[in-house]
Amino acid sequence: MLESAAARERAISLVDLARKKGADAADAVYVGDRSQGVSVRLGQLEDVHRSEGEEIGLRVFLGKRNATVASSDLSADALETLVERVLAMAAEAPEDQFAGLAPEELLFREQPIDLDLDDGGDPDPANLRERALAAEDSARAVKGITNSGGAGASSSASIFAIATSHGFCGSTQATGYSNSVSVVGGEGGTMQRDYAWHSARHLADLEAPEEIGRRAAERAVARLNPVSIKPGKMAILFDPRVATTLLGHFIAAISGSAIARQASFLLDALGTQVFAPGITIRDDPFRKRGLRSRVFDGEGLPVQPLDLVRDGVLATWLADSAAARQLGIPPTGHAVRGVSGSPGAGPANLHIAAGQRSREEMIADIKQGILVTELIGHGVNGVTGDYSRGAAGFLISDGEIGPAVAEITIASNLRQMFAMLEPAGDLRFRRGIDSPTLLVPEMVVASA
Predict the structure, then answer these.
(1) Where are the alpha helices (DSSP H) in 382-430?
(2) pLDDT tens across 348-373, in order?
(3) The pTM is what?
Protein backbone atom coordinates (compact mmCIF):
# COMPACT_ATOMS: atom_id res chain seq x y z
CA MET A 1 0.00 0.00 0.00
CA LEU A 2 1.39 3.37 -1.03
CA GLU A 3 1.54 6.45 1.15
CA SER A 4 -0.84 9.29 0.24
CA ALA A 5 1.64 11.35 -1.80
CA ALA A 6 2.85 8.32 -3.74
CA ALA A 7 -0.75 7.20 -4.37
CA ARG A 8 -1.60 10.59 -5.85
CA GLU A 9 1.49 10.49 -8.05
CA ARG A 10 0.61 7.02 -9.31
CA ALA A 11 -2.90 8.15 -10.26
CA ILE A 12 -1.55 11.28 -11.98
CA SER A 13 1.02 9.31 -13.98
CA LEU A 14 -1.64 6.88 -15.21
CA VAL A 15 -3.88 9.74 -16.35
CA ASP A 16 -0.94 11.41 -18.12
CA LEU A 17 -0.10 8.15 -19.88
CA ALA A 18 -3.70 7.78 -21.06
CA ARG A 19 -3.69 11.32 -22.48
CA LYS A 20 -0.38 10.72 -24.26
CA LYS A 21 -1.82 7.63 -25.91
CA GLY A 22 -4.88 9.43 -27.22
CA ALA A 23 -7.55 9.78 -24.56
CA ASP A 24 -9.54 13.01 -24.75
CA ALA A 25 -10.04 12.90 -20.97
CA ALA A 26 -9.37 10.46 -18.18
CA ASP A 27 -9.46 9.87 -14.44
CA ALA A 28 -7.73 7.30 -12.27
CA VAL A 29 -8.53 5.92 -8.82
CA TYR A 30 -6.04 4.22 -6.54
CA VAL A 31 -7.23 2.15 -3.57
CA GLY A 32 -4.83 0.58 -1.11
CA ASP A 33 -5.74 -1.23 2.09
CA ARG A 34 -4.23 -3.20 4.92
CA SER A 35 -6.33 -5.30 7.29
CA GLN A 36 -5.92 -7.86 10.02
CA GLY A 37 -8.39 -9.74 12.17
CA VAL A 38 -8.78 -12.40 14.81
CA SER A 39 -11.76 -14.68 15.43
CA VAL A 40 -12.43 -16.86 18.47
CA ARG A 41 -15.13 -19.29 19.51
CA LEU A 42 -15.82 -20.84 22.91
CA GLY A 43 -12.66 -19.29 24.26
CA GLN A 44 -10.41 -20.77 21.58
CA LEU A 45 -8.59 -19.04 18.75
CA GLU A 46 -10.16 -19.96 15.40
CA ASP A 47 -8.49 -17.71 12.83
CA VAL A 48 -5.88 -15.00 12.41
CA HIS A 49 -5.56 -13.21 9.12
CA ARG A 50 -3.68 -10.26 7.67
CA SER A 51 -3.83 -8.92 4.13
CA GLU A 52 -2.53 -5.99 2.16
CA GLY A 53 -3.47 -5.05 -1.36
CA GLU A 54 -3.80 -2.27 -3.87
CA GLU A 55 -5.70 -1.65 -7.09
CA ILE A 56 -5.84 1.12 -9.62
CA GLY A 57 -8.66 1.88 -12.03
CA LEU A 58 -8.58 4.01 -15.17
CA ARG A 59 -11.54 5.57 -16.98
CA VAL A 60 -10.93 7.11 -20.39
CA PHE A 61 -13.08 9.14 -22.77
CA LEU A 62 -12.89 9.21 -26.54
CA GLY A 63 -15.43 11.84 -27.45
CA LYS A 64 -18.70 10.53 -26.00
CA ARG A 65 -17.39 6.99 -25.68
CA ASN A 66 -15.84 5.73 -22.47
CA ALA A 67 -14.55 2.60 -20.79
CA THR A 68 -13.06 1.59 -17.45
CA VAL A 69 -10.49 -1.05 -16.48
CA ALA A 70 -8.76 -1.94 -13.22
CA SER A 71 -5.62 -3.79 -12.24
CA SER A 72 -3.91 -5.03 -9.09
CA ASP A 73 -0.58 -5.13 -10.96
CA LEU A 74 0.91 -1.64 -10.74
CA SER A 75 4.15 -2.34 -12.62
CA ALA A 76 5.06 -0.06 -15.51
CA ASP A 77 4.50 -2.78 -18.12
CA ALA A 78 1.12 -3.73 -16.67
CA LEU A 79 -0.09 -0.13 -16.62
CA GLU A 80 1.08 0.39 -20.20
CA THR A 81 -1.00 -2.61 -21.23
CA LEU A 82 -3.92 -1.39 -19.15
CA VAL A 83 -3.99 1.95 -20.97
CA GLU A 84 -3.87 0.32 -24.39
CA ARG A 85 -6.64 -2.07 -23.44
CA VAL A 86 -9.01 0.57 -22.06
CA LEU A 87 -8.50 2.81 -25.11
CA ALA A 88 -9.37 -0.12 -27.38
CA MET A 89 -12.46 -0.81 -25.29
CA ALA A 90 -13.56 2.83 -25.40
CA ALA A 91 -13.23 2.90 -29.18
CA GLU A 92 -15.81 0.11 -29.41
CA ALA A 93 -18.16 1.41 -26.71
CA PRO A 94 -21.51 3.04 -27.56
CA GLU A 95 -21.75 6.81 -27.30
CA ASP A 96 -23.11 8.22 -24.05
CA GLN A 97 -24.11 11.87 -24.31
CA PHE A 98 -24.17 12.28 -20.52
CA ALA A 99 -20.81 10.67 -19.69
CA GLY A 100 -17.80 12.80 -18.80
CA LEU A 101 -15.70 14.17 -16.00
CA ALA A 102 -17.17 16.50 -13.41
CA PRO A 103 -17.45 20.17 -14.50
CA GLU A 104 -13.97 21.69 -14.25
CA GLU A 105 -15.23 24.96 -12.79
CA LEU A 106 -16.78 23.10 -9.84
CA LEU A 107 -13.73 21.06 -8.80
CA PHE A 108 -12.51 21.14 -5.22
CA ARG A 109 -9.65 23.65 -5.02
CA GLU A 110 -9.41 24.42 -1.30
CA GLN A 111 -6.99 23.18 1.33
CA PRO A 112 -8.52 19.98 2.75
CA ILE A 113 -9.71 20.18 6.34
CA ASP A 114 -8.52 17.56 8.82
CA LEU A 115 -11.34 15.15 9.65
CA ASP A 116 -9.16 13.08 12.01
CA LEU A 117 -9.84 9.78 10.22
CA ASP A 118 -6.48 8.12 10.91
CA ASP A 119 -5.10 7.37 14.37
CA GLY A 120 -1.93 5.79 12.95
CA GLY A 121 -2.56 2.53 14.79
CA ASP A 122 -1.76 -1.03 13.75
CA PRO A 123 -2.60 -3.24 16.75
CA ASP A 124 -0.73 -6.41 17.54
CA PRO A 125 -2.82 -9.56 16.83
CA ALA A 126 -2.55 -10.42 20.52
CA ASN A 127 -4.44 -7.24 21.39
CA LEU A 128 -7.16 -8.08 18.88
CA ARG A 129 -7.41 -11.59 20.34
CA GLU A 130 -7.85 -10.17 23.84
CA ARG A 131 -10.64 -7.90 22.64
CA ALA A 132 -12.45 -10.73 20.84
CA LEU A 133 -12.16 -13.02 23.88
CA ALA A 134 -13.40 -10.29 26.23
CA ALA A 135 -16.50 -9.74 24.10
CA GLU A 136 -17.31 -13.45 23.95
CA ASP A 137 -16.57 -14.04 27.65
CA SER A 138 -18.89 -11.19 28.60
CA ALA A 139 -21.67 -12.59 26.44
CA ARG A 140 -21.29 -16.17 27.67
CA ALA A 141 -21.46 -14.99 31.28
CA VAL A 142 -25.07 -13.86 30.84
CA LYS A 143 -27.61 -16.35 32.22
CA GLY A 144 -29.45 -18.17 29.45
CA ILE A 145 -26.61 -18.16 26.90
CA THR A 146 -25.87 -21.75 25.87
CA ASN A 147 -23.55 -21.45 22.88
CA SER A 148 -21.46 -19.03 20.86
CA GLY A 149 -21.30 -18.24 17.20
CA GLY A 150 -17.92 -16.65 17.81
CA ALA A 151 -16.42 -13.22 18.28
CA GLY A 152 -14.04 -11.17 16.21
CA ALA A 153 -11.87 -8.08 16.32
CA SER A 154 -10.19 -6.37 13.40
CA SER A 155 -8.26 -3.31 12.33
CA SER A 156 -7.61 -1.75 8.95
CA ALA A 157 -5.96 1.16 7.18
CA SER A 158 -6.78 2.49 3.74
CA ILE A 159 -5.71 5.03 1.11
CA PHE A 160 -7.99 6.43 -1.58
CA ALA A 161 -6.55 8.71 -4.27
CA ILE A 162 -8.10 10.18 -7.40
CA ALA A 163 -6.63 12.23 -10.25
CA THR A 164 -8.36 13.71 -13.30
CA SER A 165 -7.05 15.05 -16.59
CA HIS A 166 -8.65 18.45 -15.98
CA GLY A 167 -6.70 19.28 -12.87
CA PHE A 168 -7.95 17.56 -9.73
CA CYS A 169 -5.83 15.36 -7.52
CA GLY A 170 -6.59 14.37 -3.94
CA SER A 171 -6.36 11.56 -1.45
CA THR A 172 -7.79 10.43 1.87
CA GLN A 173 -6.26 8.17 4.51
CA ALA A 174 -8.20 6.40 7.24
CA THR A 175 -8.03 3.68 9.85
CA GLY A 176 -10.83 1.47 11.10
CA TYR A 177 -11.50 -0.88 14.01
CA SER A 178 -14.35 -3.26 14.77
CA ASN A 179 -15.48 -5.75 17.39
CA SER A 180 -18.38 -8.20 17.11
CA VAL A 181 -19.90 -11.22 18.81
CA SER A 182 -22.76 -13.64 18.11
CA VAL A 183 -24.28 -15.95 20.74
CA VAL A 184 -27.11 -18.44 21.18
CA GLY A 185 -29.64 -18.54 24.00
CA GLY A 186 -31.85 -21.45 25.01
CA GLU A 187 -31.71 -25.09 23.99
CA GLY A 188 -33.11 -27.42 21.35
CA GLY A 189 -35.86 -26.09 19.11
CA THR A 190 -36.31 -22.97 21.24
CA MET A 191 -32.79 -21.61 20.66
CA GLN A 192 -32.42 -18.01 19.55
CA ARG A 193 -29.38 -16.25 18.13
CA ASP A 194 -28.44 -12.57 18.21
CA TYR A 195 -25.39 -10.38 17.86
CA ALA A 196 -23.80 -7.00 18.55
CA TRP A 197 -20.95 -5.06 16.97
CA HIS A 198 -19.31 -1.66 16.83
CA SER A 199 -16.93 0.06 14.41
CA ALA A 200 -14.90 3.25 14.75
CA ARG A 201 -12.14 5.19 13.00
CA HIS A 202 -10.05 5.48 16.17
CA LEU A 203 -9.37 2.59 18.51
CA ALA A 204 -10.00 4.93 21.45
CA ASP A 205 -13.59 5.41 20.23
CA LEU A 206 -14.39 1.70 19.99
CA GLU A 207 -16.93 0.53 22.54
CA ALA A 208 -15.62 -1.70 25.31
CA PRO A 209 -15.79 -5.38 24.31
CA GLU A 210 -17.59 -6.25 27.54
CA GLU A 211 -20.43 -3.90 26.60
CA ILE A 212 -20.68 -5.39 23.11
CA GLY A 213 -20.78 -8.92 24.50
CA ARG A 214 -23.37 -8.12 27.16
CA ARG A 215 -25.63 -6.44 24.60
CA ALA A 216 -25.48 -9.42 22.23
CA ALA A 217 -26.33 -11.83 25.05
CA GLU A 218 -29.21 -9.78 26.41
CA ARG A 219 -30.68 -9.56 22.92
CA ALA A 220 -30.47 -13.33 22.39
CA VAL A 221 -32.01 -14.19 25.77
CA ALA A 222 -34.82 -11.67 25.30
CA ARG A 223 -35.85 -13.44 22.08
CA LEU A 224 -36.56 -16.76 23.80
CA ASN A 225 -40.09 -18.19 23.86
CA PRO A 226 -41.73 -16.10 21.12
CA VAL A 227 -45.52 -15.96 21.08
CA SER A 228 -48.04 -15.98 18.25
CA ILE A 229 -50.02 -12.87 17.41
CA LYS A 230 -53.25 -12.16 15.61
CA PRO A 231 -52.85 -10.53 12.19
CA GLY A 232 -54.08 -6.98 11.76
CA LYS A 233 -53.08 -3.34 11.60
CA MET A 234 -50.91 -2.05 14.41
CA ALA A 235 -48.16 0.38 15.30
CA ILE A 236 -44.60 -0.57 14.42
CA LEU A 237 -41.53 0.71 16.25
CA PHE A 238 -38.31 0.21 14.31
CA ASP A 239 -35.36 -0.23 16.66
CA PRO A 240 -32.35 1.95 15.63
CA ARG A 241 -30.39 -1.01 14.30
CA VAL A 242 -33.12 -1.71 11.72
CA ALA A 243 -34.54 1.81 11.36
CA THR A 244 -31.53 2.71 9.22
CA THR A 245 -32.87 0.42 6.48
CA LEU A 246 -35.72 2.87 5.92
CA LEU A 247 -33.16 5.60 5.28
CA GLY A 248 -31.45 3.25 2.85
CA HIS A 249 -34.68 2.87 0.86
CA PHE A 250 -35.09 6.66 0.90
CA ILE A 251 -31.56 7.25 -0.43
CA ALA A 252 -32.05 4.71 -3.23
CA ALA A 253 -35.26 6.50 -4.21
CA ILE A 254 -33.63 9.95 -4.50
CA SER A 255 -30.48 8.89 -6.35
CA GLY A 256 -30.08 10.76 -9.60
CA SER A 257 -29.75 7.59 -11.65
CA ALA A 258 -33.05 6.20 -10.33
CA ILE A 259 -34.82 9.48 -11.08
CA ALA A 260 -33.29 9.67 -14.56
CA ARG A 261 -34.47 6.12 -15.28
CA GLN A 262 -37.89 7.01 -13.86
CA ALA A 263 -37.52 4.04 -11.52
CA SER A 264 -38.37 5.60 -8.16
CA PHE A 265 -41.51 5.92 -6.07
CA LEU A 266 -40.36 9.49 -5.29
CA LEU A 267 -40.07 10.45 -8.96
CA ASP A 268 -42.21 13.60 -8.70
CA ALA A 269 -41.55 14.36 -5.04
CA LEU A 270 -38.82 17.04 -5.19
CA GLY A 271 -39.96 20.12 -3.29
CA THR A 272 -43.00 18.36 -1.85
CA GLN A 273 -43.97 17.15 1.63
CA VAL A 274 -42.65 13.55 1.79
CA PHE A 275 -42.24 13.29 5.57
CA ALA A 276 -44.22 14.88 8.36
CA PRO A 277 -43.50 18.53 9.20
CA GLY A 278 -40.52 18.85 11.52
CA ILE A 279 -38.61 15.90 10.05
CA THR A 280 -34.98 16.59 9.07
CA ILE A 281 -32.68 14.17 7.26
CA ARG A 282 -29.13 15.48 7.10
CA ASP A 283 -25.95 14.40 5.35
CA ASP A 284 -22.74 15.54 7.05
CA PRO A 285 -19.43 14.70 5.32
CA PHE A 286 -17.43 16.80 7.80
CA ARG A 287 -18.15 14.81 10.96
CA LYS A 288 -14.87 14.31 12.84
CA ARG A 289 -13.86 10.64 12.84
CA GLY A 290 -17.02 9.75 10.90
CA LEU A 291 -17.14 6.38 9.18
CA ARG A 292 -18.03 8.06 5.84
CA SER A 293 -16.48 11.48 6.30
CA ARG A 294 -14.74 13.07 3.31
CA VAL A 295 -13.58 16.43 1.98
CA PHE A 296 -14.31 15.76 -1.69
CA ASP A 297 -16.49 13.29 -3.53
CA GLY A 298 -15.61 10.49 -5.96
CA GLU A 299 -15.29 12.92 -8.86
CA GLY A 300 -13.21 15.58 -7.11
CA LEU A 301 -16.10 17.89 -6.31
CA PRO A 302 -16.44 19.72 -2.98
CA VAL A 303 -18.87 18.40 -0.38
CA GLN A 304 -20.86 20.18 2.30
CA PRO A 305 -23.34 19.39 5.06
CA LEU A 306 -26.79 19.30 3.50
CA ASP A 307 -30.38 18.77 4.61
CA LEU A 308 -31.85 16.27 2.17
CA VAL A 309 -35.21 16.69 3.90
CA ARG A 310 -36.07 19.95 5.63
CA ASP A 311 -39.25 20.25 7.70
CA GLY A 312 -40.50 17.14 5.93
CA VAL A 313 -39.94 18.54 2.43
CA LEU A 314 -37.61 16.73 -0.01
CA ALA A 315 -34.94 19.32 -0.82
CA THR A 316 -32.60 17.62 -3.31
CA TRP A 317 -31.68 14.60 -5.35
CA LEU A 318 -28.28 12.92 -4.91
CA ALA A 319 -26.55 13.14 -8.27
CA ASP A 320 -23.14 12.36 -9.72
CA SER A 321 -22.15 14.32 -12.83
CA ALA A 322 -23.62 11.92 -15.40
CA ALA A 323 -26.99 11.72 -13.67
CA ALA A 324 -26.97 15.48 -13.10
CA ARG A 325 -26.56 16.07 -16.85
CA GLN A 326 -29.51 13.81 -17.52
CA LEU A 327 -31.61 15.72 -15.02
CA GLY A 328 -30.40 19.16 -16.05
CA ILE A 329 -29.10 20.04 -12.58
CA PRO A 330 -25.64 20.66 -11.08
CA PRO A 331 -23.95 17.62 -9.52
CA THR A 332 -24.58 17.55 -5.78
CA GLY A 333 -21.14 16.40 -4.55
CA HIS A 334 -22.31 12.90 -3.66
CA ALA A 335 -20.38 10.82 -6.20
CA VAL A 336 -19.04 7.55 -4.83
CA ARG A 337 -16.84 5.07 -6.66
CA GLY A 338 -14.31 2.31 -6.56
CA VAL A 339 -11.66 1.33 -9.06
CA SER A 340 -14.15 -0.29 -11.47
CA GLY A 341 -17.04 1.27 -13.31
CA SER A 342 -18.42 4.78 -13.37
CA PRO A 343 -19.33 6.80 -10.27
CA GLY A 344 -22.70 6.44 -8.60
CA ALA A 345 -24.26 8.62 -5.91
CA GLY A 346 -24.47 8.07 -2.17
CA PRO A 347 -24.47 9.96 1.13
CA ALA A 348 -21.62 10.53 3.55
CA ASN A 349 -22.69 10.43 7.23
CA LEU A 350 -26.48 10.37 7.04
CA HIS A 351 -28.96 10.68 9.89
CA ILE A 352 -32.56 11.53 10.64
CA ALA A 353 -32.75 14.10 13.43
CA ALA A 354 -34.05 13.08 16.84
CA GLY A 355 -37.68 13.79 17.66
CA GLN A 356 -39.34 15.34 20.69
CA ARG A 357 -40.69 12.22 22.37
CA SER A 358 -38.57 9.58 24.05
CA ARG A 359 -38.80 5.95 23.01
CA GLU A 360 -40.41 5.18 26.37
CA GLU A 361 -43.10 7.82 25.80
CA MET A 362 -43.86 6.34 22.40
CA ILE A 363 -44.20 2.84 23.83
CA ALA A 364 -46.47 4.10 26.62
CA ASP A 365 -48.92 5.46 24.02
CA ILE A 366 -49.13 2.23 21.97
CA LYS A 367 -52.13 0.03 22.72
CA GLN A 368 -51.04 -2.74 20.37
CA GLY A 369 -47.87 -2.84 18.32
CA ILE A 370 -44.55 -4.47 17.57
CA LEU A 371 -41.01 -3.34 18.44
CA VAL A 372 -39.08 -4.65 15.43
CA THR A 373 -35.46 -5.58 16.10
CA GLU A 374 -34.75 -7.75 13.05
CA LEU A 375 -35.80 -7.60 9.41
CA ILE A 376 -35.60 -10.54 7.02
CA GLY A 377 -35.77 -10.67 3.22
CA HIS A 378 -35.81 -7.98 0.55
CA GLY A 379 -39.48 -7.39 -0.22
CA VAL A 380 -39.25 -3.72 -1.19
CA ASN A 381 -40.26 -2.40 -4.61
CA GLY A 382 -38.22 0.73 -5.36
CA VAL A 383 -40.54 1.77 -8.20
CA THR A 384 -43.88 1.57 -6.39
CA GLY A 385 -42.69 1.85 -2.79
CA ASP A 386 -44.54 -1.31 -1.77
CA TYR A 387 -42.98 -2.71 1.40
CA SER A 388 -43.28 -6.23 2.80
CA ARG A 389 -40.59 -7.82 4.94
CA GLY A 390 -40.20 -10.63 7.41
CA ALA A 391 -39.56 -9.41 10.93
CA ALA A 392 -38.97 -10.36 14.55
CA GLY A 393 -39.12 -8.35 17.73
CA PHE A 394 -41.36 -7.84 20.75
CA LEU A 395 -45.07 -7.42 21.30
CA ILE A 396 -46.24 -4.10 22.75
CA SER A 397 -49.55 -4.22 24.64
CA ASP A 398 -51.16 -1.36 26.55
CA GLY A 399 -47.94 0.64 26.67
CA GLU A 400 -45.69 -2.20 27.85
CA ILE A 401 -43.10 -4.28 26.02
CA GLY A 402 -44.11 -7.93 26.26
CA PRO A 403 -42.87 -11.27 24.95
CA ALA A 404 -40.84 -11.89 21.83
CA VAL A 405 -42.50 -12.44 18.45
CA ALA A 406 -40.95 -14.14 15.43
CA GLU A 407 -41.80 -15.19 11.90
CA ILE A 408 -44.11 -12.28 11.20
CA THR A 409 -44.49 -10.05 8.14
CA ILE A 410 -44.95 -6.28 8.23
CA ALA A 411 -46.31 -4.51 5.15
CA SER A 412 -47.27 -1.06 3.89
CA ASN A 413 -46.06 1.43 1.29
CA LEU A 414 -42.98 3.58 1.84
CA ARG A 415 -44.75 6.78 0.78
CA GLN A 416 -47.38 6.19 3.44
CA MET A 417 -44.78 5.13 6.01
CA PHE A 418 -42.64 8.22 5.41
CA ALA A 419 -45.66 10.52 5.69
CA MET A 420 -46.59 9.08 9.13
CA LEU A 421 -43.11 8.39 10.47
CA GLU A 422 -42.05 9.88 13.82
CA PRO A 423 -38.47 9.73 15.17
CA ALA A 424 -37.83 9.23 18.87
CA GLY A 425 -35.27 11.18 20.85
CA ASP A 426 -32.68 8.38 21.17
CA LEU A 427 -30.39 9.21 18.23
CA ARG A 428 -26.76 8.07 18.63
CA PHE A 429 -23.99 8.50 16.06
CA ARG A 430 -22.47 5.03 15.63
CA ARG A 431 -22.51 4.20 11.92
CA GLY A 432 -22.36 5.79 8.49
CA ILE A 433 -26.17 5.91 8.54
CA ASP A 434 -27.78 6.60 11.91
CA SER A 435 -31.36 6.75 13.10
CA PRO A 436 -33.26 6.98 16.37
CA THR A 437 -36.13 4.60 17.01
CA LEU A 438 -38.77 5.25 14.33
CA LEU A 439 -42.52 4.93 14.86
CA VAL A 440 -44.85 4.09 11.99
CA PRO A 441 -48.34 4.36 13.55
CA GLU A 442 -49.97 1.74 11.33
CA MET A 443 -48.77 -1.21 9.27
CA VAL A 444 -50.30 -4.55 8.37
CA VAL A 445 -48.89 -7.40 10.46
CA ALA A 446 -49.35 -11.07 9.61
CA SER A 447 -47.77 -14.43 10.39
CA ALA A 448 -45.01 -15.29 7.95
Answers:
(1) 414-420
(2) 999 999 999 999 999 999 999 999 99
(3) 0.94
